[in-house]
Amino acid sequence: MSWLFPFPPRLPLGEGFEALNEWLKEHFGGLFDAIGATIDWSVTTLRDFLTEPQAAQLTAIAAAVLVAVLVRARPIPVLVIAGTAVALYVGQAAFALGDTLVNHSPPQLFLWAMHLFGQDGVESNLVIGIVALAALVVVAAVHRIRLPLVAAVAGGWLVTILCGWLLFDAVPGVIGQPTATLVMLLLSALAWAVAGWKLGVFSLVALTVVISIGQWNNAMSTLSLVLVASLIAVIIAIPIGVLAAYSTVVSRVVKPVLDLMQTMPAFVYLIPAIFFFSLGAVPGVVATVIFAMPPGVRLTELGIRQIDKEIVEAGEAFGAPPAKILTGIQLPLALSTIMAGVNQVIMLGLSMVVIAGMVGAGGLGNQVYQGISRNDGALGFEGGIAVVILAIFLDRLTAAVTRRSPQARAEQAAAA
Amino acid sequence: MFEVRGPEGSGTGPTLTPRIPQRHVTGPEEEGTTPKTPCQTRSTEEEAVPAVRANHLYKVFGKRAPQAVELLSDGRHRDEIKELNVTAAVIDVSFEVQPGEIFVVMGLSGSGKSTLIRMLNGLLPPTSGTVEIDGTDITALSRRARRALRGEKISMVFQHFALFPHRTVLENAAYGLEVRGVPRAQRHERAAHALDLVGLGDWKSHLPQQLSGGMQQRVGLARALSADTDIILMDEAFSALDPLIRRDMQTQLIQLQAELGKTIVFITHDLNEAMRLGDRICVLRDGRVIQIGTPEEILNHPADDYVARFTEDVDRSRVLTAASVMEPAPKADSADWDDWERVEPDAPVAELFQRAAACDNPLAVVDEEDRVIGAVSPSTILSALAMPEEQENGVVPAPVRGERREEVRQ
């Protein structure tokens, strides 16, 4: 008992935390390495795509969108195409299966395209994507499923590829940063499609400003970091929020933990994050996930709890199992609240980027941090403005998604 | 369910409780065949299995619920067990609903009727007692089996409609079938048929919030009808509607029930509605059953002052029928019957005013084979319309075997 005196004894809280971290790293080091590698790969891939999009990647995205559009109407052919394409991609990545196939095909198939676009080789991934895309368009055309939408996606893909080709090769010297301009146009088109022409015009102007202050690559680096962190945070937050909505016990346990996560100074997360994941983008992402997650959990719980009890009861009264009530009633009706949470998660994630820049996450945070350390007001301000533009862009975009939720559409229908 | 009651020696317990259903269930047709104690649940195979049967149901919310059930089963009022810190919503409720019957549970707010209806389809587990649906004890089923049974046999209409705002009217109406895994085209066809039945065939692609309250509740009704269950539970289904629309909906419900022959358990706080819809009415007060009987029984033989006070507001001339007010036909001058105007036994008294006043003779109440079974004179009508306490014994012949319930509580 002597250790109790003098009365408030020194409590080794911090030392305990350190010891816990070391124990975790010693026993679960492999797990942390795997997590770190996955996060790093995601951030790098996304950043590379945003700074230098490849035609093959764009084609794959267009094909994926078409699969999502068509899979409900004609599941079997669409899934066969998607499965084959995925298998070919994997085969290409693992043992250059695509290259082998291309080399064994008649060269006339590819020569004209190589001449047209001035290429001296064939990219197998692009070929796989184009074939899948064409097959999907044929399926849609034969069965006459949602033709306008399919035409818009396929046409958009074609326009993008041609734009890229024009920007790079046809009109050299007119556009200073062709890749950045291309991505800027794509992001503006996305904003226009999701949120209307006003946000489209805003994006066009604001993102052009980002290019012209020379922060485009940093901005895309930050954007990829924020998107990956937000995605992880949302994937963790929504199930916890659902559990908390179902169980008062979970809710009571989770609440103080969320309070801690949100109020703990964000710098503190960086210390164990560096300890586990060393310097770079990964500790930045991890710290951002922890800091940004709470509103996702809270608003998911709130969204589900505030649904009229009678509506859930109606599902039960007709014999719906809990999973069907969750996915068919509770999540759709809570979606606008959950999306408000996702919006908050993204905003909090953006607010973390400067801090993450301190640990070498790169991007705009790094610019601002350099501005501070070099007393360079111009650099700091430019980095800051780019963060603001990204914030407005992401906020309006998620808000628009919220407006398109089923519940919101029902409310609009009632008002009309 | 008897093990929850007090030890055998504890005063009135074992003798009082089994008697309650005997005194309460006074429905004309099943009297005598009604099982007197819940122990004999399956012993009466010779009669039709009731669509719904509640056996000494208790629902007590709170940690000390079992103890509370023990005390309440001795006939105590729920206010007497306040110190247990529990809420006794439903206390010792027993009844049977026959197939094709509209059974109305009437009570004011706080009388436990919403809790009761949620125990009937297993949304709430009873603290004690059992619920049988077509002879199956749903309280003994697994959750999965109970869900399946709910989907196949019972649907429900809610007070505030409880439509899914993100689904169209048609998808709402098809929900019960969707849960059961009926293919899309087929369930939409059946849902469309149900919507046609309630007169909403042109609104299929609208969202619920674009519809008025009455129309929304029709969608709720169509959702219950399309599920094609034999039993429909209606929880104050028309209480949130305007009086005129409510009347339309009641008429429509009666028509639909006559067409489709569903078994309906209808909850309401409005005795007029209960009288209009119910084949039989169960009056609840403070969680206990006060009286179960046909509208005429409730009106003419209210079990206690509480029920009597309710009946004051009822338009008696619409509830009472020629058969329920008629006097025995005078036997002597049977030759004169040819001159008497004939009325059907189930004609409401309201329709007899004019005819009784127009002719000198009493009206002859005749059955399907034109046999005179009673007579109705203007004075019969007048005395029948008087409140029961104003009636002298013998003025109104008791048409049914309603019994006055002795007060359990002092």
Automatic annotation (TrEMBL), chain A:
Its main location: membrane. Residues 219-398 form the ABC transmembrane type-1 domain. Keywords: Cell membrane, Membrane, Transmembrane, Transmembrane helix, Transport. It is found in: Cell membrane; Membrane. It holds the Pfam family BPD_transp_1. Belongs to the binding-protein-dependent transport system permease family. This is ABC transporter permease subunit.
